[in-house]
Amino acid sequence: MARISVCLALSLIAAPAAAETIRIDWLERQVTPPPVQSNMQARPERLGLDGARLSVADIATTGRFTGMDYQLVETVIPPEAPFLPAAEAALAQGARLLVVSAPAADLLALADLPAARDALILNTAAPETSLRGADCRANLLHTLPSVAMRTDALAQFIVTKRWTNLAMIAGTLPEDLAYAEAMRSSLTKFGLSLAGEKTWPFQSDLRRAATTEVPLFTQDLPDHDLLLIADERGDFGRYVAYNTWLPRPLAGSEGAQPLGWSGVVEQNGAAQLQNRFRDTAGREMAPADFAAWAAIAALGDATTRTATADPAALRSYLLSDRARIAGFLGRPLSFRAWDGQMRQPIPIVTERAVVGLAPFEGFLHAVNELDTLGPDQPETLCTAFQEGP
Amino acid sequence: MIRSILMGTALSLSLAPALADEIWVTNEIDDTVSVIDARTLEVKATYPTGERPRGITFSKDFKRLYICASDSDAVQVMDPDTGQILHDLPSGEDPEQFVLAPDDRLLYIANEDDAITTVVDTESRTVVTQIDVGVEPEGMGISPDGRIQVTTSETTNMAHWIDTETHKIIANTLVDSRPRHAEFRPDGTELWVSSEIGGTVTVFDTATQAEKGRIGFAITGIQPEKLQPVGMRFSPDGQRVFVALGPANHVAVVNAATLEVERYILVGRRVWHMELSPDQTRLFTTNGVSGDVTVIDLASLEPIATVKVGRFPWGAAARPTPN
User: Fold this and answer.
1) What is the pLDDT of residues A295-350, one digit of tens each?
2) What CATH number does the domain containing B108 carry?
3) Is A252 left (phi over 0), alpha (psi -120 to 50) or beta?
4) A61 and B173 in contact by Cβ < 8 A?
5) Which fold has domain A2-145+262-345?
6) ipTM for the complex shown
7) Best mutation site among B54, B151, B172 for testing chain A: the one with the most A CBs within 10 Å?
8) Average pLDDT over chain B, rounded to whole?
9) B225/A331 Cβ within 8 A
10) Which residue, B193, B216, B239, sits at the end of a domain?
11) Element (H or E) spanning A211, and its range?
């Protein structure tokens, strides 16, 4: 009822009177990308930020008609500079709606600042499931899917394909270990298991040696339908493909990948978003760009629907079942009230096409099928959302 | 069993003295239009179009067919008697949907990638004006008296009310997420706007642009997120509104007076848009994912046949064939 009256109040604005300016902050902790073997891969310079800029342009168009003006204040902190002072400075200048690209530790330090207590922070870059679990914060929402959501999506895909014999090769970097661990949990959750598993051992330059080394390395894996790869930095997976002892498809960090977004997503009107992004950024839209785009789209929707920029009111709207945000993935996006994670379908993609979109048919849920991806309310380890911020 | 019933239906239809009316359907992925014989329910012709054809409408005399060829950045004009493209109209970029004014001359085109409504004179083949609207305009409606054109924008979540005399926006009304289609009541007193992601239809009073009501949908066994209203059509008598529910694979039948949903009709997968047969006895729905058209009998409100067309059928327009 309240919502309808708000809409009516807004509904007849022909030309905005005095536009209210709503400040949204982009806070980015730059990280030096770790070296990978291939020289062909470079991290886009404005990864995430390009998505944020596009989204602000999108919601500013809406604002022209609602009398709301949106301002994106960009703070990019170089790898060698300290993060917190810059964050504190932004907060001191009045930042209260923060869209953040930073590692988990920086993100938590920011969320725990006294000045950030009444702020609303949206995480667009840190995938750790623990940030939505034991380490959750009431003032911290997440538009990037957690690792668990992505591996759950892949496990559903595997069940749908009836691939029952599985093997995995995992790297040794922390994110590889986390991905492999999430993959094992997801397989268990959906009634699957690994027949064999190996750790990637090579230090040599595989660009030359893959055709001789990889067949031998994969020869002693038990027979499998699908070979899972845990290589989140994209270091070695590309050299495994087509070099395995048995000719088998790959999935995980290589092959069929569960990703929050990809340049090949085109259904559900996504082609329009992709076109706008390519036009402005000059490259393909990556998961981090989509997470940033979605964070600002959510803020735009919330400010329009509630006719306020108050972080507490926006948070309350976003966590309510009134929020149904359009995100080009075929289902409304919304936020889980128990951990602040944005509900979203997860595309399973190759380099050239979407091969599936989780949640898949048959994975049922009493409330919302999207909650079959990632920790659901009964098993959540997050307690910060049980009462107000 | 099903086959024999369908054959029986076809037989009885062939005995009816109906004209060979046609339903024209754009196939978004195949770059073609399929022409369905409304009597035999067979595809009697398939004609090539520009890239990614979506919106489709006939001139009042049915001598010209306008087609939004979105990826060709053109509105194409086809001779429906021959299937030949006569010429293109300037359309602005990425025309997705359009509406022909009651004067049979001005075409209002939604340029999805440019946040613009383009007004084109179909006779002089020139752009009359372009109007800035919200992001991703799509739904296009025009009042029966031709005085108000409404463009809805998918990402801005608004209906933009355009005065066709001045070509200025006179009001912007907020609706739920991702509005897809705008349809005036045949008497012009109401505007209906569907919101795909919001899952609702909003009804406005045309005179005041005030919201009169909002309609939600519920089908047992289908999750609310899949109930995504897109195309809409008023019944010939104006008493009912048919609302296509996208991936819920149903068409809702809404009582236009009470705004209550009276019934849900099962159709093909991802139902998009609808068209009434010229004799107004049947409703044809385009089903994008299943690549077919469901034919609904308007008397019984039952689906009576499915017609296979091209890949991703999107828009539909009817033509009574002169004998």
Assistant:
1) 999 999 999 999 999 999 999 999 999 999 999 999 999 999 999 999 999 999 99
2) 2.130.10.10
3) left
4) no
5) Rossmann fold (3.40.50)
6) 0.78
7) B172
8) 93
9) yes
10) B216
11) helix A206-219
